[in-house]
Amino acid sequence: MTMTVLGSIGTVAAGCTTGAFIPQIIKLRQQGGKDLSYPMLGVYLTGMLLWLVYGLLFHAQAVIWANMVGIILVGTCLILKATWTGDTSGAPHRLRVAIDMDEVIADSLSHHLELYNQATGECLSPERIREEGLDGVVPARLRELFERIPHQDGFFEDLGVVEGSQHALRLLESRFDVFITSAAMDVPFSFDSKYRWLQRHFPFIPPNRIVFCGDKEIINADYLIDDRSRHFARFRGTGILFTAPHNARERARLRAGNWDDVLALLPNERRRTQKTPAAELVKA
């Protein structure tokens, strides 16, 4: 009877020490193992391996099975700690929306056409571009001049604001993490002008949420609102083509004709995702 009691105590003890890692595994799956020590797990795993050898040498079945299960559980903890990439805050985080500048919130085309018409005597209008496309309305002999106009000093200082964009971005700020993402490397010296323009017309967008870049493939966001569909080619999120005269005849999976359309297209719900600070908006 004494041996039976001792055996029962040993079985319960083995079950407790082995099963103690099951709650830890559940916590690791939900919250990660940031505070769990690799050395502790390593030493614990080494101890179990030695106990397994001991059990095999002395044919102690309880020791063998308890430590075999324990090795599996501790190994699982190590794998989960090494591979877990979820959110440690436990709170739902907002989707990220990247928004282009030119022809999305800044009316660059009107200024562009004004300068072009002054320089050439033409009467080029947005309506003609919408109907015929840029290639059809800008003669080959004037194409270089047309493309050079945004490179003029101060071009981006006095642009108008796209209708509804200020109100829409204020609303989006309450639902999403909003970033201004401009392919400013197309005109490298435009950085200062664009930044000042944003400070003047969108002062509620903090500087650390303004991203000047080249290829927008590097942008890590859930949505990208842009008037150039080429930026969607390798973008990992969802692209929304913002209608402008130059893309009016282009087919698009998602298109917004104005900022009311954008507000209708974007979801209202939040999702659980790892929070990314502004400095990490660009993918490594």
Strand-helix topology:
Blueprint: H1 2-19, H2 21-31, H3 38-58, H4 61-83, E1 96-99, E2 106-107, H5 108-120, H6 126-132, H7 134-137, H8 140-148, E3 160-161, H9 165-175, E4 177-182, H10 191-201, E5 210-212, E6 223-226, E7 238-242, E8 255-256, H11 259-265
Parallel strand pairs: 1-4, 1-6, 4-5, 6-7, 7-8
Antiparallel strand pairs: 2-3
Helix pairs in contact: 1-4, 2-4, 3-4
Descriptive keywords:
single chain; 284 residues; alpha/beta; Monooxygenase; Rossmann fold; six-stranded parallel sheet; 11 helices; 8 strands
The CATH first-level class of the largest domain comes to: Alpha Beta
H-E string: HHHHEEHHHHEHEHEEEEH
Question: How many structural domains are formed by the residues?
Answer: 2
Note the main sheet.
6 strands, parallel
Largest beta sheet: what is the strand line-up? 5-4-1-6-7-8
Number of DSSP E strands:
8
Broad shape: rod-shaped
Number of helical stretches of at least 4 residues: 11
